[in-house]
Amino acid sequence: MRNQSLTVFKEPSLLQATIPLLVLICALAGSVYLFGEDSSYGPNQIALWVAGGVAVIIGFVNNYRWDDIEEGIKEGVSVALGALLIILAVGSLIGTWLLSGTVPTMIYYGLELLNPSWFYAASALICGIIALAIGSSWTTAATIGVALMGVAAGMELSPGITAGAVVSGAYFGDKMSPLSDTTNLAPAVAGTELFAHIRYMVYTAGPAYLISLVLFFLLGLNVEATTSALKLETMQLELTNAYNIGWEMLVPLLVLLYLAATRKPALPTVFFGALLGGAWAVIFQPELIEKLAGDGSAVASLKVVWMALTDGIVVETGSEQLDSLLSGGGMSSMLNTVWLILSAMTFGAIVEKIGLLQRLISGVLGFAKSTGNLIAATLFTCFGANLLTADQYMAIVIPGRMFREEYEKRGLDARVLSRTLEDSGTLTSALIPWNTCGAFMMGTLAVSPWEYAPFAFFNWLTPLIAMFYGYTGIRILHRDKAPNTPIHASS
Predict the structure, then answer these.
(1) What is the pTM of this model?
(2) Domain total for the chain?
(3) Is residue 40 part of a domain?
């Protein structure tokens, strides 16, 4: 075997770095054209593997051995392992919370409180508040978000717009919360302080969120609610016929939110919430469990809860709409999401290992002569990293490491970089179907990013506002040459 230390790897050309990206774009476009909404259930994964194979060939041309590339794949996939386990746990949580009556109760009271004309804006606002309190867009989407999707179905509102409102609110709260992992990661990579970073993000996130709420309110004004009242009452009646509905059913949700807000680890918190949901089902939904099990024995009840954790539940109420709403969940429901993420992370690990991603970024720096161009280049690079590496953490860390020195050379405060990393690295991740965040939202909300992305106003307005600030100089902070002197903003 050849000594790896003697191997000289060739630096990839810009053309070589571009080829796998073009192949991926063409393959994904073909996948969507041929398979439509089903493209994320296999075809997109194959597209990622094909593009990854092209990248491997380029790696061989540049003297990389398969052992080198395989090691990179292992390292890259390991980055997503925690997220994959959380996704599986969320599947179990949805299954037992459907069985326990937690999600149906949220839907019931949501139908009672929310008016169709301002439902979209209220959804974005509620998700924003919850995510700000607990620091997790994923937990918000998997709990409140799932319930809001159910309420929207009951009101016959657009699932795409509702999912866009959930994602917008969840990511605003996540971005502005000191409990959020990405909100802590970005200033650490850029070299600034957490709360200074959060205060500085207000200038981009604040206007984007307010504009988003206005847009969701305007969309709600067009909703025809003339026949909603009777339909909603009927749906509430069907819910009470199928479940025992009451405020006590929300205890699993309150426990989960408390654990998340007190910064308990995500994986055990979510799975504990799933197990608590199973226990709550046995205590408060004995009739439903007996109906699903066929008898009322303890063993049969245990089997129903176990299967809810594994494969979810299938509820038959006589209403086709309600049955589809209350059926689902389980770890197995997330397996396609896991498949998609593994495929995407494999592709991302290959292009990073053989230097293609770094080559693309270095090529971008050549065009970033002004501050506006530098910020725009950072935003597009973060989006590209989300596209290629399929992980928001990579989309923050890699561009952050590569642009940090350039920001320092130009006298820009570290907060400019940290805010820009979040404005794109965090927010655009949910807009990409094969990214861990986009795949999670698709698996949880049952709506493809292709469908909700046009309505995730906050997620694409924020980068646009950041770019506007970069070119106009508004709220762009500069470091003074003398140490320990105040930072000033150009306007």
Answers:
(1) 0.74
(2) 1
(3) no
